[in-house]
Design goal:
The protein contains 16 helices and eight strands. The protein is elongated. By secondary structure, it is an alpha/beta fold. The longest helix has 31 residues, at 62-92. The strands form three sheets. The protein has a four-stranded parallel beta sheet, sandwiched between helices. It has a two-stranded antiparallel sheet with strand order 1-4. Helix 3 crosses helix 4 (62-92), helix 4 packs antiparallel against helix 5 (101-124) and helix 5 packs across helix 6. The chain folds into two domains: 20-271, Up-down Bundle (Cytochrome Bc1 Complex, Chain C); 282-492, no CATH class. The protein has helices spanning 2-11, 21-42, 49-60, 62-92, 101-124, 128-142, 163-187, 200-216, 243-250, 252-268, 293-297, 330-334, 358-370, 412-419, 441-450, 476-492, and strands at residues 282-283, 303-307, 316-320, 351-352, 379-384, 398-403, 425-430, 466-470. The relative contact order is 0.09. Helix 15 (441-450) links the parallel strand 7 and strand 8. The chain binds protoporphyrin IX containing FE (HEM) and iron/sulfur cluster (2 copies). One iron/sulfur cluster binds at residues 283, 288-294, 318, 334-335, 337, 350-351. Protoporphyrin IX containing FE (HEM) binds next to helix 2, helix 4, helix 5 and helix 7.
C-alpha cells in the first residue's frame, strides 16, 4: 500500500497502473493479437523460409513490419510482467481466498498458457535462440517417457525437419492464446463489473511506451539456426525463457518437480491455513421487496433473484450463495430497507450480515456518539476494517465505528447521525480509490453520496458536514491532517437545525 501510495503521486490515482493490472493484461493481449495477425500475414513456414520472412519484416519493412514484430514481443513481455505483479498483489492483499478462490484457481492455468504461447513464438523465428529453445524443450519433454522415440532426435540434422513442424508450431502458437482468451473470460465469471479496459490515458501512455521501445530497440533475430552446430545463444528473453538456463544447470527432473510442485502449490493456496470463514449475508424475506439492488451491487455475483417463495405480493426475492459470499456487507449498503430511522419492530433489513448486523451498527453509532463531549466540531467517523484503523483516532470530539467495508454504510446512517444531532459532522473513510479490498465498496459509496446510485444520500443532508477521506492503512498522517482541517470547518458552521417528523408506520424521518 505504501508503494502504491507513491505510484499514486507519480501517475495520479486515476492512472495508477497497479490498480488495473488485470485490465492491462487484457490490453496487452489485444496488442499482441493485432500485431501477431500482421506478422502472421508475412510469415512463411519451412527452413529457411521462416527465418527469412521474419528477417524481411525486420529489415526491409522495418517501418511497419519491424515495428509490429517488436510490439508483438514487447507487449508479450509486458503481459508477463503484469501477470507476475497481479499475482503478487492479489496474494499480498489477501484477495484470493473464500469466494475469491475461483479467480485465483483459473488464473493458474493462464500462467502456463502465456508461457507456452511465448516459448512457441521464439521457436517460430528459427534462429540460434530458437534452436537452443527447441533442443532444450525437447530434452525436457523427453524426460517423460511418453513419446515412443525421443523428440529431440528431430533436431539432430536439418533433413529431419520439414515445414510440417512449423505448421504444428504455428497451430500451437495460435491455438494456445485462443484458449487463453477463453480462460480469461472464465477467470472473470465471479468478478461482477470487472474492469477489462485500463483508463484511456494509461492505455495511450503504455502503448506509446511500447512503440518508442520498438523504434529505439527493435526486436531482432540471432543468426539462422544451424542444426549441424551447437548453439550458444546470447540475449535470452528473461520474461519467457528464464527456465532454459535453469534446465541446463539443474537438469529436467528438478525442473519438472519445481514446475509441477509449484503449480500444485499455487492451485491449493486459497485453501491453505489460516482459513477464515466468515458467516455469509442472509436475506430476510419479510423485509425484502425484490428490488434487485443488492444483486447489482454485490462485487462477487454472490446474490441472484428467484421467484418469490413466501407468497408476498412481490415477483422476486434475493438469495445469497454462501459459498461465494465474502461477507463484505456491500449488499446491506445497497438495500433500501437498511434505514436506521426504522423504529417500528426490530430493525432487520432485507439483507443483513450476521457478523455485524445493521441493527448492531446503529447501536454502535448511538453508543459511540453518546461519549462525544458537547462541542460544535464533534465528528462521527465511519471506517472500514480493511483500510486505515479508525479506532486509533478516537478521542475528544471524534467517535468511530468500523465495518467490513465502507460500502456497507447505507447513506441513511449519515442522515441519521446529523439529523439526530449525534455529531456535527460525518467522515466516511475506506480504502483508496482502486484499492478497495472488496473491489467496489468505495466506488458504490461515492456514487450513493453523489446521488447517482441508489440508495442516495438525501438532499436535506448538509453536504458541508460530510467529508470523505480515502485512506489506506499507511495514510495515517494524511488522515489526521484532513480530520483537523474538517474539525476547523465544522466549528465555523452554524448549528444544524433539523426537525424530525414521524410518518404513519412510526418511522421517524
Ligand atoms: C493473462 C493473465 C491475467 C489477466 C488478463 C487477468 C485479468 C484479471 C482481471 C481483469 C481481473 C478483475 C479485476 C477487477 O476488475 O477487479 C482479475 C481478477 C483476479 N485475478 Fe487475474 N488475470 C490474469 C492472471 C491471473 C493469475 C495468474 C492469477 C493468480 C494465480 C490471477 C488472480 C486473480 C484474482 C484472485 C482476481 C480476483 C480479485 C478480486 O476478487 O478482487 N489472475 N484478473
Ligand atoms: S436490496 Fe434488499 S430489498 Fe432489494 S432485493 Fe436485495 S435484499 Fe431485497
Ligand atoms: S456480503 Fe453481500 S455484497 Fe458482499 S459478497 Fe456477500 S452477498 Fe455479496
Amino acid at each position: 500500500m505504501w508503494i502504491e501510495g507513491w505510484i499514486d503521486h507519480i501517475f495520479g490515482q486515476k492512472w495508477n497502473p497497479t490498480y488495473c493490472l488485470g485490465a492491462l493484461g487484457y490490453y496487452y493481449f489485444w496488442i499482441v493479437s493485432i500485431s501477431g495477425i500482421y506478422v502472421y500475414i508475412f510469415f512463411e513456414t519451412g527452413i529457411p523460409d521462416a527465418f527469412m520472412s521474419i528477417e524481411y519484416l525486420t529489415n526491409e519493412q522495418w517501418w511497419l513490419g519491424g515495428i509490429m514484430r517488436s510490439l508483438h514481443r514487447y507487449a508479450s513481455d509486458a503481459m508477463v510482467a503484469m501477470m507476475v505483479l497481479h499475482i503478487i498483489r492479489e496474494f499480498a492483499f489477501d484477495r484470493y481466498r473464500g469466494g475469491r478462490w475461483f479467480s485465483w484457481f483459473t488464473g493458474v492455468p493462464m500462467l502456463w498458457m502465456v508461457m507456452i504461447a511465448g516459448i512457441t513464438g521464439y521457436w517460430l523465428v528459427w534462429d540460434e535462440l530458437a534452436q537452443y529453445v527447441a533442443i532444450t524443450t525437447t530434452e525436457l519433454l523427453d524426460w517423460f517417457p511418453i513419446f515412443g522415440e525421443p523428440i529431440a532426435r528431430n533436431f539432430l540434422a536439418p533433413s529431419h525437419l520439414d515445414s510440417r513442424f512449423f505448421t504444428m508450431m504455428i497451430f500451437a502458437h495460435i491455438f494456445v492464446p485462443l484458449f487463453l482468451l477463453f480462460i480469461m473470460w472464465i477467470h472473470l465469471q465471479r468478478v461482477a463489473h470487472s474492469t477489462i479496459n485500463p483508463p484511456r490515458g494509461l492505455a495511450i501512455g503504455t502503448f506509446l511506451m511500447l512503440l518508442v521501445l520498438s523504434i529505439i530497440k527493435p526486436a531482432t533475430s540471432q543468426s539462422i539456426a544451424d542444426l549441424s552446430t551447437i548453439p550458444s545463444p546470447v540475449g535470452i528473453d528473461w520474461f519467457y525463457l528464464w527456465i532454459y538456463p535453469l534446465i541446463d544447470i539443474v537438469g529436467p527432473a528438478w525442473i519438472w518437480i519445481g514446475l509441477l510442485g509449484g503449480t500444485a502449490l499455487l492451485l491449493i493456496v486459497p485453501w491453505l491455513p489460516p482459513a477464515k470463514k466468515v458467516p455469509a449475508a442472509v436475506v430476510n424475506l419479510d423485509n425484502c421487496n425484490g428490488c434487485t439492488r443488492c444483486v447489482v451491487d454485490c462485487p462477487f455475483s454472490a446474490i441472484t433473484m428467484q421467484k418469490r417463495t413466501d407468497g408476498m405480493a412481490f415477483d422476486q426475492e434475493a438469495i445469497v450463495n454462501p459459498d461465494i459470499c465474502v461477507a463484505c456487507g456491500i449488499c446491506v449498503g445497497a438495500c433500501p430497507t437498511a434505514s436506521p430511522f426504522r423504529r417500528a419492530g426490530e430493525f432487520i433489513p432485507g439483507i443483513d450480515l450476521p457478523g455485524l448486523s445493521a441493527s448492531t451498527l446503529r447501536d454502535k453509532v448511538e453508543r459511540a456518539a453518546s461519549k462525544l463531549e458537547g462541542r460544535p466540531d464533534r465528528i462521527m467517523v465511519f471506517g472500514c476494517d480493511k483500510a486505515l484503523r479508525v479506532d486509533k483516532f478516537r478521542g475528544k470530539g471524534i467517535a468511530t465505528v468500523s465495518m467490513p467495508c465502507a460500502g456497507m454504510l447505507p447513506p441513511s446512517f449519515i442522515d441519521f447521525v446529523l439529523s439526530r444531532k449525534l455529531a456535527d459532522g460525518v467522515v466516511v473513510t475506506g480504502c483508496r480509490r482502486g484499492e478497495c479490498h472488496y473491489r467496489l465498496g468505495q466506488i458504490w459509496l461515492e456514487e450513493r453520496l453523489d446521488g447517482v446510485r441508489d440508495p442516495r444520500l438525501r438532499k436535506r443532508v448538509p453536504r458541508e458536514r460530510v467529508n470523505r477521506i480515502w485512506a489506506s492503512a499507511t495514510d495515517g498522517r494524511m488522515f489526521a491532517r484532513n480530520m483537523a482541517s474538517f474539525q476547523g470547518t465544522l466549528s465555523d458552521l452554524k448549528p444544524i437545525d433539523h426537525k424530525i417528523k414521524k410518518i404513519k408506520d412510526g418511522t421517524e424521518q
